[in-house]
Amino acid sequence: MSARDSDWDGVRLHIVTGKGGTGKTTVAASLALSLAAGGRKVLLVEVEGRQGIAQVFALPPLPYEERRIAVAPGGGDVYALAVDPEAAMLEYLEMFYGLRRAGRALTKMGVIDFATTIAPGLRDVLVTGKTSEAVRRRAKNGKRVYDAVVLDAPPTGRIVRFLNVTHEVAGLARVGPIKHHADLVRGVVASPETAIHFVTLLEEMPVQETIDGVAELRAAGLPPGGVFINMVRPAGLPDSYLDAALEGRFDVAELALGLKAAGLADGPGDASATAEALVAEVAEHARRTRLEGAERRTLAEVGLPSYELPLLADGVDLTGLYELSESITTQGAA
């Protein structure tokens, strides 16, 4: 593997969160492709049971096992794992108590669902614990099994509670295997090897959630990473044109003459109507561009590295994932 510059050298666990609808899973998948590029091995994990990874990679639903799902640019493999809390509970019972058979019996009785319902912190410990184990895991030769792990985490509003596992299980277990397990998870999540990234859009609500989420992470002693601004539209026009549109300084009659001369309109009436519609469209574009600029400046105040990912005209498919991955790599995020 060749060395490369990255803003996150030394980080092995990339946790991706964001307000619903911002493209969190898409960004997590693209980041995994970027991290795996050049011969690396990366695990992409989801924990919400939505099968979002399978959808973005156009795959059938993923089982609870690690399997290769994509080849990264320049070589390298992306593996995926859809964590199932029930299966994670069975692993936990076997690991700490040697009770896998008993765990299956408890599953049939509904005891595991009952336990994770009355103690939701335990559910989070189980699913984050599986991710933390993958980060720590080593092969027989002593090398790390994965060069990096990317966790497609819950939305911003729940991210601190999801990750702050030691606090969440404090009332459930102050000593013993559960407490020990939670401490292991916390040791990984709060370490310099972890970065918690936010995905947002240049819109007021997701930007505000990002700002609030960063503040909550810092208050909880958890490491914020970068801000991925998704679905960014190109400005398209120089600032002077945008200013003119906002200030109503476009000459509709002159524009109509230009449209007619270019063969883009038939008669005078048609040219005038087209020119008026075009001016209105440019003015709306200018307003949106100015609002997006204000949101961009607001995001800059949190003091985190930011990366802008383009709005894909044809939507997100496999080609689009690789395009976003290239953008992430070019900007130094992986």
UniProtKB/TrEMBL annotation:
SUPFAM superfamilies: P-loop containing nucleoside triphosphate hydrolases
Organism: Spongiactinospora rosea
InterPro entries referenced in this protein's UniProt entry, alphabetically: ArsA/GET3_ATPase-like, ATPase_ArsA/GET3, P-loop_NTPase
Protein name (database record): ATPase
Any one GO molecular-function label of the UniProt entry: ATP hydrolysis activity
Pfam families (alphabetical): ArsA_ATPase (PF02374)
ArsA/GET3 Anion-transporting ATPase-like domain mapped to chain residues: 13-169
